[in-house]
Design brief:
- By secondary structure, the chain is α+β, with helices and mostly antiparallel strands.
- It has five domains: 6-242, BirA Bifunctional Protein, domain 2, CATH 3.30.930; 278-436, no CATH class; 458-555, Elongation Factor Tu (Ef-tu), domain 3 (Beta Barrel); 564-711, Threonyl-trna Synthetase, Chain A, domain 2 (Threonyl-tRNA Synthetase, Chain A, domain 2, 2-Layer Sandwich), CATH 3.30.980; 764-877, Diaminopimelate Epimerase, Chain A, domain 1.
- It contains 23 helices and 35 strands.
- The strands form eight sheets. Strands 1, 2, 3, 4, 5, 6, 7, 8 and 9 form a nine-stranded mixed sheet that branches. A six-stranded antiparallel beta barrel has the order 13-16-20-19-18-22. Strands 30-31-32-33-35-34 form a six-stranded mixed sheet, with helices on both faces.
- Helix 4 links the parallel strand 4 (125-129) and strand 5.
- Helix 6 (251-261) packs across helix 7 (269-290), helix 6 (251-261) packs antiparallel against helix 9 and helix 12 packs across helix 14 (419-436).
- It is globular.
- Mean pLDDT is 89; it is low at 436-442.
- This is Alanine--tRNA ligase.
- One of its GO terms (molecular function) is zinc ion binding.
């Protein structure tokens, strides 16, 4: 077997299946599109679910891909094992209702063993099969494989719940006795067991059953093939590498880290872990950020932040104190440029994000060390030798401080960390994350009703909004194909239609269906694409309808034209954002309604008011220029050469539509548009906000809706002018400024009076401290305007040294407020303000906390303030 590079192996795999009639699907974005069940694209089949559950029928039923994927359930294992990764590539070949076991198995054997392709030694290959799947075993024997190399394993059944499922067959490569890490009689010492000798390189799933909601398994209407070959694993075989990390996919990164750290990979096992973690995480964050995800405190953004912080911490272990991950981005790009040239194209943007996050973490890390020092000091002061799990988790969750690092740091000072408590807090966080994830079914139960409807249907809505004599080709009601319907709702397919089916963010058309006599028979409520791409009309019946009859279809013109204007506006907005904010800005979603448009886009940081105004002006400038909007239909490659912008989330066929606004905007788009930008009349941004990690949202209006929005704003301004007694609207800002100055002056006067009241009260309440169990105590219910005055009283008490403990209560805004202060000499004896506030706050139905010398609490029961003050006496008396 010849040594091959990772690029050669990837290309060879795809070329092989291309020679077998497969279409090569490009690697999709790591950020899932329209799939709330996934945080990341985590496998090749994740991008094929719509084909496997029958919701979409692919143009060609044979597909192959090399799909970049991220899995985060084993982050802690990365670096400690030979093959755990966060980012990996999954090679796969897929059949959607076409070939099945016979071809899948024979082609797998051909690719692996043929001298023309991978050229592996057949004696090195072993396969596993499901015991009840004797068909697969029989087909494997047909390949000429040694019968003793076929192992039956009960676990070889792929099932993720409701939806397609079936037996699978795994292929293993025997790396030889030198890799054997188990005793000969170990029960895991076999192909398929947990060992290092037999390396799983490929899994073929024979998707032949529907796992029904009732738990039963019924034969699929259309059987599928789903396979997965881990590129990193196969490369390690071809390059005879002990682990995946000693391959051309990782070694350039490891060598770069050697230069940055001055350390040598292979010197110590502990150092090697750090090298591997950095190499792995650098790949993952580079691709994730390149696909539009950004560091944040939630969701996939939290994953990126965690990976960056984990890599930085391992860099520090190697002696790298400056930002360094930013230098690894171009290395990742060079490694992957053969199949992923976009990484180098987006290099500057990715580096900007990584640099910012590294700098931010290095600052946060110092804060984390300071907090840990305080926690250690407090533990020692309390005579404790352990930091509880909640505090350790806060260090990890807030400051990115890995448990192991905190444990090592604290251990140097004789303090342990509560691992069980930390794991419990981590488990709670994971459960919160799972609960926050959509409960949607990951893959639907396959149905052949709509899948089998292949009657051609032509969309003519680009040119006309009415069609006379459209033939009703298919009619579905209550999930059954019927020839006639009397009432209720139904789903219809016509031989031709002017109704736009919802797609690309543009909502579906609505309208009417009439018979040949001009009588209304149904209203069109929605239009979606059927699995075979026909426009499927959901209608509400007024009169009976029959298959084969002719009908007149009419789109609601006013609704349609408003949607067209807003759709064209999204194209102008998209390009304007790139022009003003930078080319890194990409569309992340849109919604085009008749009343408004919503446009989501990727951007690192907030959009300034100045930039937002520039974007809005640029869109309006293009409207005023009265630019023709043109559409051409061409092939995919020609469209790309024209400079048309494509959405990463969309799949395009052989023919595509390109919508152009002169040379300003040119995009792939199947939607409907105005003929000239002047039809938009006016464009106005209504709001701009953040909707997720690195994703911003603009809502805007055009034409009549924009005029009505501005008219409403003007009326509000006129009302404001009236209230301010401004002679003209233009005087409103100066009048408001005057009012702000007046309010500020009055607030200062009020504050002075409140402070004086607090001082007057202090004169009386600090004069008569009580003795409780040898401790001098002052308690009082006071009349103050807010917590600032309560804290002022505490400061006055501290300056006067009137007692050792102060407990004050006040009703403020209908709520109870408590404050406790403790003198330093008493703190040394173990009396802490935080402990006392917790003991008494229950009396006011509240809670609180604070430092040992000062703590405060709030509650919903002001009637309990006196009880809280009495409880303070009892608490001190019981000491």
């Amino acid at each position: 077997m010849e040594r091959k590079s990772s690029s050669e192996i990837r290309r060879m795999y795809l070329d092989f299946f291309k020679s077998k009639g497969h279409v090569v699907e490009p690697s999709a974005s790591l950020v899932p599109q329209d799939d709330p069940t996934l945080l990341w694209i985590n496998s090749g089949v994740a991008t094929m679910k719509k084909y496997f559950d029958g919701s979409v029928v692919p143009e060609v039923p044979r597909l192959t891909s090399s799909q970049k994927s991220i899995r985060t359930n084993d982050i802690e294992n990365v670096g400690h094992t030979a093959r755990h990764h966060t980012l990996f590539e999954m090679l796969g070949n897929f059949s959607v209702g076409d070939y099945f076991k016979q071809d899948a198995i024979h082609w797998a054997w051909e690719l692996l063993t043929s001298k023309e392709w991978f050229g592996m030694d057949p004696e090195k290959l072993f396969v596993t099969v499901y015991p009840k799947d004797q068909d697969a075993k029989k087909i494997w024997l047909e390949t000429g494989i040694d019968p003793t190399h076929i192992v039956e394993i009960e676990d070889n059944f792929w099932d993720i719940g409701e939806g397609p499922s079936g037996p699978d067959s795994e292929i293993f490569y025997d790396r030889g006795p030198s890799f054997n890490n188990l005793a000969d009689d170990d029960p895991e010492n076999y192909p398929g067991g947990e060992n290092e000798r037999w390396l799983e390189i490929w899994n073929i799933v024979f998707s032949q059953f529907n796992h029904e909601p009732d738990g039963s398994y019924e034969p699929l209407p259309h059987k599928n093939i789903d396979t997965g070959m881990g590129l990193e694993r196969v490369v390690s075989v071809f390059q005879d590498a002990p682990t995946n990390f000693e391959t051309d996919l990782f070694l350039p990164l490891i060598h770069e880290v050697e230069k940055l750290s001055g350390k040598k990979y292979g010197d110590t096992k502990e150092q090697d872990v750090s090298f591997k973690v950095i190499a792995d995480h650098a790949r993952a964050i580079t691709f994730a950020i390149g696909d539009g995800a950004l560091p944040s405190n939630e969701g996939r953004g939290y994953v990126i932040r965690r990976l960056i912080r984990r890599a930085v911490m391992h860099g520090k272990k190697l002696g790298i104190d400056q930002a360094f991950l930013v230098d690894l981005v171009p290395v990742v790009g060079e490694i992957m440029k053969d199949y992923y040239p976009e990484v180098l194209e987006e290099k500057a943007y990715i580096q900007k994000v990584v640099q910012s996050e590294e700098d931010r973490f290095n600052e946060t890390l110092d804060d984390g060390i300071g907090l840990l020092d305080n926690i250690i000091a407090e533990a020692k002061a309390n005579g404790s030798s352990e930091i509880d799990g909640k505090q350790a988790f806060k260090l990890f969750d807030t400051y990115g401080f890995p448990f192991e690092l905190a444990q090592e740091y604290a251990g140097d000072q004789g303090i342990k960390l509560d691992r069980a408590g930390f794991d419990a807090e981590m488990a709670k966080q994971k459960e919160r994350a799972r609960s926050a994830r959509s409960k949607s079914v990951s893959m639907g139960v396959q149905s052949d009703l709509l899948t089998d409807l292949k009657t051609p249907s032509e969309y003519v809505g680009y040119d006309t909004l009415t069609v006379d004599g459209a033939v009703l080709a298919d009619l579905v009601q209550n999930d059954q194909l019927v020839d006639h319907v009397e009432r209720g709702t139904a789903e219809l397919i016509f031989d031709k239609t002017p109704f736009y089916a919802e797609m690309g963010g543009q909502v579906a058309d609505i309208g009417e269906i009439k018979d040949q006599d001009g009588q209304l028979v149904a209203t069109v409520e929605d239009v979606q694409h059927a699995p075979n791409s026909q426009n499927l009309h959901t209608v509400k019946l007024v009169k009976p309808m029959s298959k084969g009859e002719k009908y007149n279809l009419s789109v609601n013109r006013e609704f349609h034209l408003k949607v067209e204007k807003n759709h064209t506006a999204t194209h102008l907005l998209d390009q304007s954002l790139r022009s003003i904010l930078g080319d890194h800005t990409k569309q992340a979603g849109s919604l085009v309604e008749p009343g408004y448009l919503r446009f989501d886009f990727t951007h690192f940081g907030q959009v300034t008011e100045e930039d937002l105004n520039k974007v809005e002006k640029l869109v309006n400038d293009k409207i005023y220029e009265e630019i023709p909007v043109t559409t051409v239909e061409t092939d995919l490659e020609s469209a790309k050469k024209m400079g048309a912008i494509a959405l990463f989330s969309e799949k395009y066929g052989k023919k595509v539509r390109v919508v152009s606004v002169d040379d300003f905007s040119r995009e792939f788009c199947g939607g409907t548009h105005v003929k000239n930008t002047n039809e938009l009349g006016l464009f106005k941004i209504v709001s701009e906000s953040g909707v997720g990690a690195g994703v911003r949202r603009i809502e805007a209006v055009t034409s009549q809706a924009a005029y009505e929005f501005l008219l409403k704003e003007e009326n509000l301004l006129k009302q404001t002018a009236g209230l301010l007694k401004a002679a003209q609207v233009k005087d409103v800002p100066s009048k408001v400024a005057q009012q702000i100055d007046n309010v500020k002056s009055l607030n200062q006067e009020v504050q002075k009076l409140q402070d004086q009241i607090a001082k007057d009260q202090a004169a009386g309440i600090f004069d008569n401290p009580e003795d409780v169990n040898g401790i001098s105590l002052i308690t009082a219910k006071v009349d103050v305007a807010g917590m600032d005055q309560l804290r002022q009283l505490a400061d006055d008490w501290k300056n006067k040294k009137s007692s050792q403990v102060l407990v004050l209560g006040a009703e403020i805004g209908g709520k109870a407020n408590l404050i406790v202060a403790v003198a330093e000499d008493l703190i040394k004896q173990g009396v802490k303000a935080g402990d006392l506030i917790k003991a008494i706050s229950g009396k006011v139905n509240g809670g609180g906390g604070g430092r040992p010398n000062l703590a405060q609490a709030g509650g919903s029961n002001p009637a309990g303030i006196e009880d809280a003050l009495a409880e303070a006496h009892q608490w001190l008396a019981a000491r």
